[in-house]
């Protein structure tokens, strides 16, 4: 345990400074996010306090219940999401494939599955997290897809009147793949299966919506 983690316990008594209070909050949320990913629904306030190097009193003073801390940690994790990145490619089909492989890798990671399990276990709190989940999904997954398809449309690579609708259909398919399979479903997270699914979806979109040479049109 680092000296910095224990410092809050060693400070002089009295109300902490604004900087100290902010630092304690960061320690708690960082520990809570790590515990949430590692232990999911079995995470406890005591475990968070120990991981943060703080007393239970300090944690309980800020979060009266496990649910309150769960909400704060979940919101913090969702706010910190970044748009996914994926390798460039010469064709739209290959770019879409690379995008989908990265998305499926992300949502099948141990961290993502632990977070999903924690959400399912605390399903009664989902209404309070719905907006944060929607914004995180849009920022991390939907926006890169929408930007890619919009650029492909401008470049004449995508034959669709509404690229945003295509992006929405692909996004909904990805979300469906993520939510309809059980966490322990056979093959979930298997790179070969994920690549095959990504390839199939990329072909369905591009070979159905990409312009074809006149001689190939039926």
TrEMBL record:
| Domain (HTH tetR-type): residue spans on this chain | 22-81
Q: What SUPFAM superfamilies does the record tag this protein with? A: Homeodomain-like, Tetracyclin repressor-like, C-terminal domain
Q: Does the keyword DNA-binding apply?
A: yes
State if DNA-binding is listed as a keyword: yes
Which Gene Ontology molecular function entries are recorded, alphabetically? DNA-binding transcription factor activity; transcription cis-regulatory region binding
Q: What are the entry keywords?
A: DNA-binding
- Where in the chain is the DNA-binding region found? 44-63
Mind telling me which InterPro entries this protein's record contains?
Homeodomain-like_sf, HTH-type_TetR-like_transc_reg, HTH_TetR, Tet_transcr_reg_TetR-rel_C_sf, TetR_C_Proteobacteria
In terms of domain of life, where is this protein from? Bacteria
Which Pfam family would be a valid example here?
TetR_C_7
- Its name, as the record gives it, is TetR/AcrR family transcriptional regulator
What species is given as this protein's source? Novosphingobium aerophilum
* The organism's taxonomic lineage, starting at the top: Bacteria, Pseudomonadati, Pseudomonadota, Alphaproteobacteria, Sphingomonadales
């Amino acid at each position: 345990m680092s000296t910095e983690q224990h410092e809050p316990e060693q400070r002089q008594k009295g109300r902490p400074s604004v900087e100290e209070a902010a630092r304690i909050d960061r320690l708690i949320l960082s520990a809570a996010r790590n515990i949430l990913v590692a232990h999911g629904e079995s995470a406890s306030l005591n475990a968070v306090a120990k991981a943060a190097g703080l007393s239970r009193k300090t944690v309980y003073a800020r979060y009266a219940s496990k649910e309150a801390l769960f909400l704060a940690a979940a919101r913090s994790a969702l706010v910190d999401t970044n748009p996914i990145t994926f390798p460039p490619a010469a064709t739209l089909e290959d770019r879409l494939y690379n995008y989908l492989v990265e998305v499926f890798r992300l949502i099948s990671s141990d961290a993502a599955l632990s977070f999903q399990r924690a959400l399912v276990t605390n399903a009664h709190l989902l209404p309070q997290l719905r907006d944060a989940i929607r914004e995180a999904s849009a920022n991390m997954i939907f926006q890169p897809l929408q930007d890619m398809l919009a650029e492909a449309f401008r470049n004449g690579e995508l034959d669709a009147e509404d690229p945003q609708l295509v992006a929405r259909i692909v996004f909904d398919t990805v979300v469906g793949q993520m939510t309809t399979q059980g966490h322990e479903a056979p093959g979930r997270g298997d790179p070969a299966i994920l690549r095959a699914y990504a390839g199939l979806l990329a072909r369905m979109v591009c070979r159905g919506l990409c312009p074809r040479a006149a001689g190939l049109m039926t």
